[in-house]
Design goal:
alpha+beta, twelve-stranded mixed sheet
Length: 280
Protein backbone atom coordinates (compact mmCIF):
# COMPACT_ATOMS: atom_id res chain seq x y z
CA UNK A 1 0.00 0.00 0.00
CA UNK A 2 1.35 3.44 -1.02
CA UNK A 3 1.14 5.19 2.36
CA UNK A 4 3.50 7.74 3.91
CA UNK A 5 4.73 7.79 7.51
CA UNK A 6 7.64 10.25 7.36
CA UNK A 7 7.38 13.43 5.28
CA UNK A 8 10.61 14.17 3.43
CA UNK A 9 10.70 17.30 1.27
CA UNK A 10 13.41 17.27 -1.39
CA UNK A 11 14.55 19.54 -4.18
CA UNK A 12 13.81 18.33 -7.70
CA UNK A 13 17.01 18.26 -9.77
CA UNK A 14 15.57 17.61 -13.22
CA UNK A 15 12.35 16.82 -15.06
CA UNK A 16 12.08 13.64 -17.10
CA UNK A 17 9.03 12.30 -18.93
CA UNK A 18 7.74 10.37 -15.93
CA UNK A 19 8.42 13.32 -13.63
CA UNK A 20 6.58 15.65 -16.00
CA UNK A 21 3.57 13.32 -16.02
CA UNK A 22 3.47 13.17 -12.21
CA UNK A 23 3.69 16.95 -11.90
CA UNK A 24 0.99 17.34 -14.53
CA UNK A 25 -1.19 14.90 -12.60
CA UNK A 26 -0.95 17.18 -9.55
CA UNK A 27 -2.07 20.13 -11.69
CA UNK A 28 -4.99 18.18 -13.15
CA UNK A 29 -6.09 16.86 -9.75
CA UNK A 30 -6.05 20.41 -8.37
CA UNK A 31 -7.94 21.88 -11.34
CA UNK A 32 -5.18 24.31 -12.30
CA UNK A 33 -4.03 25.63 -15.68
CA UNK A 34 -0.23 25.21 -15.63
CA UNK A 35 1.73 23.41 -18.34
CA UNK A 36 5.05 21.61 -18.66
CA UNK A 37 6.53 24.89 -19.93
CA UNK A 38 5.57 26.55 -16.66
CA UNK A 39 7.24 23.81 -14.62
CA UNK A 40 10.36 24.29 -16.74
CA UNK A 41 10.50 27.97 -15.70
CA UNK A 42 10.40 27.02 -12.02
CA UNK A 43 13.18 24.48 -12.52
CA UNK A 44 15.44 26.71 -14.65
CA UNK A 45 15.00 30.00 -12.80
CA UNK A 46 14.01 28.82 -9.34
CA UNK A 47 13.39 25.77 -7.22
CA UNK A 48 10.86 22.95 -7.30
CA UNK A 49 10.43 20.94 -4.11
CA UNK A 50 8.53 17.67 -3.89
CA UNK A 51 7.43 14.89 -1.59
CA UNK A 52 7.49 11.31 -2.85
CA UNK A 53 5.43 8.38 -1.65
CA UNK A 54 7.22 5.21 -0.46
CA UNK A 55 6.80 3.90 -4.01
CA UNK A 56 8.61 6.94 -5.42
CA UNK A 57 5.61 8.73 -6.90
CA UNK A 58 5.46 12.56 -6.58
CA UNK A 59 2.52 13.31 -4.29
CA UNK A 60 3.17 16.95 -3.32
CA UNK A 61 4.94 19.94 -4.79
CA UNK A 62 5.93 23.56 -4.29
CA UNK A 63 7.89 26.14 -6.27
CA UNK A 64 9.99 29.20 -5.46
CA UNK A 65 10.75 31.69 -8.21
CA UNK A 66 13.16 34.55 -7.39
CA UNK A 67 12.34 37.84 -9.12
CA UNK A 68 15.14 40.36 -8.98
CA UNK A 69 17.25 40.99 -5.90
CA UNK A 70 14.66 40.81 -3.12
CA UNK A 71 11.37 39.18 -4.19
CA UNK A 72 10.58 35.47 -4.50
CA UNK A 73 7.24 34.01 -5.56
CA UNK A 74 5.92 30.86 -3.88
CA UNK A 75 3.40 28.79 -5.81
CA UNK A 76 2.34 25.30 -6.90
CA UNK A 77 1.67 24.07 -3.34
CA UNK A 78 -0.17 21.01 -4.59
CA UNK A 79 -0.98 17.71 -2.87
CA UNK A 80 -2.41 14.54 -4.41
CA UNK A 81 -6.01 14.01 -3.20
CA UNK A 82 -5.17 10.65 -1.56
CA UNK A 83 -2.55 12.33 0.65
CA UNK A 84 -4.29 15.54 1.68
CA UNK A 85 -4.81 16.54 5.33
CA UNK A 86 -1.64 14.69 6.32
CA UNK A 87 0.69 17.67 6.70
CA UNK A 88 2.35 17.47 3.27
CA UNK A 89 1.26 20.93 2.14
CA UNK A 90 2.46 22.46 5.40
CA UNK A 91 5.84 20.71 5.09
CA UNK A 92 6.30 21.89 1.51
CA UNK A 93 5.34 25.47 2.42
CA UNK A 94 7.85 25.51 5.28
CA UNK A 95 10.56 24.27 2.92
CA UNK A 96 9.71 27.04 0.45
CA UNK A 97 9.72 29.75 3.13
CA UNK A 98 13.06 28.56 4.52
CA UNK A 99 14.52 28.60 1.03
CA UNK A 100 13.29 32.15 0.41
CA UNK A 101 14.83 33.28 3.70
CA UNK A 102 18.11 31.52 2.85
CA UNK A 103 18.50 33.63 -0.29
CA UNK A 104 17.52 36.78 1.64
CA UNK A 105 14.38 37.47 -0.37
CA UNK A 106 10.84 38.35 0.68
CA UNK A 107 8.14 35.78 -0.05
CA UNK A 108 4.97 36.64 -1.92
CA UNK A 109 2.13 34.44 -3.11
CA UNK A 110 -1.46 34.52 -4.35
CA UNK A 111 -3.58 32.32 -2.08
CA UNK A 112 -6.85 30.56 -2.75
CA UNK A 113 -9.46 30.70 0.03
CA UNK A 114 -8.61 27.08 0.88
CA UNK A 115 -4.94 27.88 1.44
CA UNK A 116 -5.23 31.33 3.02
CA UNK A 117 -5.50 30.05 6.58
CA UNK A 118 -2.32 27.98 6.26
CA UNK A 119 -0.39 30.99 4.96
CA UNK A 120 -1.65 33.21 7.78
CA UNK A 121 -0.40 30.60 10.27
CA UNK A 122 3.06 30.89 8.72
CA UNK A 123 3.36 34.66 9.03
CA UNK A 124 1.93 35.87 5.72
CA UNK A 125 -0.18 39.01 5.73
CA UNK A 126 -2.90 40.05 3.30
CA UNK A 127 -2.19 42.75 0.72
CA UNK A 128 -4.95 42.70 -1.90
CA UNK A 129 -7.91 40.73 -3.24
CA UNK A 130 -8.03 39.42 -6.80
CA UNK A 131 -10.60 37.59 -8.89
CA UNK A 132 -10.16 35.15 -11.75
CA UNK A 133 -12.60 35.91 -14.55
CA UNK A 134 -13.49 33.26 -17.13
CA UNK A 135 -14.93 33.47 -20.61
CA UNK A 136 -16.06 30.40 -22.52
CA UNK A 137 -15.57 29.74 -26.22
CA UNK A 138 -16.81 32.18 -28.83
CA UNK A 139 -16.69 32.57 -32.61
CA UNK A 140 -14.13 35.05 -33.99
CA UNK A 141 -12.60 36.08 -37.29
CA UNK A 142 -8.89 35.29 -37.14
CA UNK A 143 -6.28 37.83 -38.19
CA UNK A 144 -2.54 37.08 -38.04
CA UNK A 145 -1.03 40.56 -38.24
CA UNK A 146 0.26 40.17 -34.66
CA UNK A 147 2.85 37.70 -35.98
CA UNK A 148 4.57 40.22 -38.23
CA UNK A 149 6.61 42.01 -35.57
CA UNK A 150 9.01 40.87 -32.87
CA UNK A 151 8.44 42.24 -29.36
CA UNK A 152 10.77 44.85 -27.93
CA UNK A 153 11.61 42.71 -24.91
CA UNK A 154 13.79 45.33 -23.22
CA UNK A 155 11.09 47.99 -23.39
CA UNK A 156 8.39 45.52 -22.38
CA UNK A 157 10.45 44.30 -19.40
CA UNK A 158 11.02 47.88 -18.22
CA UNK A 159 7.29 48.59 -18.38
CA UNK A 160 6.63 45.42 -16.43
CA UNK A 161 9.28 46.10 -13.77
CA UNK A 162 7.89 49.61 -13.24
CA UNK A 163 4.38 48.22 -12.84
CA UNK A 164 5.08 44.99 -10.97
CA UNK A 165 7.85 46.27 -8.72
CA UNK A 166 10.33 43.44 -9.32
CA UNK A 167 12.39 42.11 -12.22
CA UNK A 168 10.77 39.15 -13.98
CA UNK A 169 12.28 39.77 -17.43
CA UNK A 170 13.34 36.12 -17.80
CA UNK A 171 9.80 34.94 -17.12
CA UNK A 172 8.40 37.29 -19.77
CA UNK A 173 11.07 36.19 -22.26
CA UNK A 174 9.97 32.60 -21.71
CA UNK A 175 6.32 33.52 -22.30
CA UNK A 176 7.18 35.36 -25.52
CA UNK A 177 9.37 32.51 -26.79
CA UNK A 178 6.44 30.09 -26.80
CA UNK A 179 5.04 29.37 -30.24
CA UNK A 180 1.41 29.89 -29.22
CA UNK A 181 1.95 33.15 -27.29
CA UNK A 182 0.32 36.35 -28.55
CA UNK A 183 1.13 39.89 -27.40
CA UNK A 184 0.48 43.54 -28.08
CA UNK A 185 2.77 46.36 -27.04
CA UNK A 186 2.76 50.15 -27.19
CA UNK A 187 4.86 52.84 -25.46
CA UNK A 188 2.41 53.01 -22.55
CA UNK A 189 1.59 49.38 -21.96
CA UNK A 190 1.42 45.77 -23.12
CA UNK A 191 -0.54 42.55 -22.83
CA UNK A 192 0.61 38.93 -23.14
CA UNK A 193 -1.61 35.96 -23.91
CA UNK A 194 -0.32 32.43 -23.36
CA UNK A 195 -1.80 28.97 -23.68
CA UNK A 196 -2.52 27.08 -20.48
CA UNK A 197 -3.56 23.49 -19.90
CA UNK A 198 -7.29 24.21 -20.11
CA UNK A 199 -7.52 27.88 -21.12
CA UNK A 200 -5.61 30.85 -22.47
CA UNK A 201 -4.34 33.26 -19.82
CA UNK A 202 -4.49 37.02 -20.46
CA UNK A 203 -1.77 38.66 -18.40
CA UNK A 204 0.16 40.50 -17.46
CA UNK A 205 -1.74 43.50 -18.78
CA UNK A 206 0.07 46.72 -17.92
CA UNK A 207 -1.23 50.15 -18.95
CA UNK A 208 -0.74 53.79 -18.07
CA UNK A 209 -4.46 54.52 -17.99
CA UNK A 210 -7.92 52.97 -18.24
CA UNK A 211 -8.35 53.74 -21.96
CA UNK A 212 -5.10 52.02 -22.93
CA UNK A 213 -5.92 49.05 -20.71
CA UNK A 214 -9.34 48.78 -22.33
CA UNK A 215 -7.88 48.78 -25.85
CA UNK A 216 -5.25 46.16 -24.98
CA UNK A 217 -7.89 43.94 -23.39
CA UNK A 218 -10.29 44.27 -26.32
CA UNK A 219 -7.51 43.30 -28.73
CA UNK A 220 -6.66 40.25 -26.62
CA UNK A 221 -10.28 39.19 -26.23
CA UNK A 222 -10.86 39.56 -29.97
CA UNK A 223 -8.14 37.06 -30.91
CA UNK A 224 -9.05 34.29 -28.47
CA UNK A 225 -11.76 31.90 -29.53
CA UNK A 226 -11.46 29.27 -26.79
CA UNK A 227 -11.75 29.46 -23.00
CA UNK A 228 -9.94 32.41 -21.38
CA UNK A 229 -8.83 33.34 -17.85
CA UNK A 230 -7.86 36.81 -16.68
CA UNK A 231 -6.89 37.59 -13.06
CA UNK A 232 -7.70 41.15 -11.96
CA UNK A 233 -7.27 43.13 -8.73
CA UNK A 234 -10.73 43.75 -7.28
CA UNK A 235 -10.20 47.52 -7.01
CA UNK A 236 -10.32 47.77 -10.83
CA UNK A 237 -14.07 48.39 -10.79
CA UNK A 238 -14.40 49.97 -14.25
CA UNK A 239 -12.19 47.31 -15.81
CA UNK A 240 -14.18 44.47 -14.26
CA UNK A 241 -17.39 46.01 -15.61
CA UNK A 242 -15.84 45.79 -19.07
CA UNK A 243 -15.05 42.12 -18.46
CA UNK A 244 -18.68 41.48 -17.58
CA UNK A 245 -19.80 43.29 -20.74
CA UNK A 246 -17.61 40.92 -22.78
CA UNK A 247 -19.16 37.82 -21.22
CA UNK A 248 -16.65 37.10 -18.45
CA UNK A 249 -17.87 35.62 -15.17
CA UNK A 250 -16.16 35.19 -11.81
CA UNK A 251 -14.54 31.79 -11.32
CA UNK A 252 -12.48 32.01 -8.11
CA UNK A 253 -10.81 34.49 -5.80
CA UNK A 254 -7.22 34.97 -4.63
CA UNK A 255 -5.57 36.91 -1.83
CA UNK A 256 -2.15 38.43 -2.49
CA UNK A 257 0.03 37.85 0.58
CA UNK A 258 3.55 38.67 1.77
CA UNK A 259 5.91 37.19 4.36
CA UNK A 260 8.57 39.72 5.36
CA UNK A 261 9.23 43.42 4.94
CA UNK A 262 9.15 44.92 1.46
CA UNK A 263 7.37 47.69 -0.42
CA UNK A 264 4.10 46.43 -1.88
CA UNK A 265 4.23 45.17 -5.44
CA UNK A 266 2.08 46.93 -8.06
CA UNK A 267 2.32 50.14 -6.03
CA UNK A 268 2.39 52.30 -9.19
CA UNK A 269 -1.19 51.29 -10.03
CA UNK A 270 -0.28 50.23 -13.58
CA UNK A 271 -1.24 46.54 -13.47
CA UNK A 272 -4.71 45.66 -14.74
CA UNK A 273 -4.25 41.89 -15.02
CA UNK A 274 -1.58 39.84 -13.25
CA UNK A 275 0.47 37.12 -14.96
CA UNK A 276 -1.34 34.49 -12.91
CA UNK A 277 -1.12 33.26 -9.30
CA UNK A 278 2.00 31.25 -10.10
CA UNK A 279 3.92 34.23 -11.55
CA UNK A 280 2.52 37.30 -9.79
Amino acid sequence: MDTIKVIKVERLASIFLETEKELDDLVIQSGWNQTAQDWSIFLRLGTICIVRSPLGRIIASGAVLPMGSNVAWISMILVSPDFRSKGLGKAVLRYCIEHVHSIRHVAYLDATPAGEGLYLQHGFKKLAQLTRWRRVNKLIQTNIDYLLHQPDIDALSKLDANAFGADRAEVLKNFLSRKETLYRQNPRGFVILRQGRTAHQIGPLVASDELNASRLFEWADHYLADQVYIDVVDQRKAFTEKLKAHGYVQQRSFTRMMNGLHGNLDSNNLTYAIAGPEFG
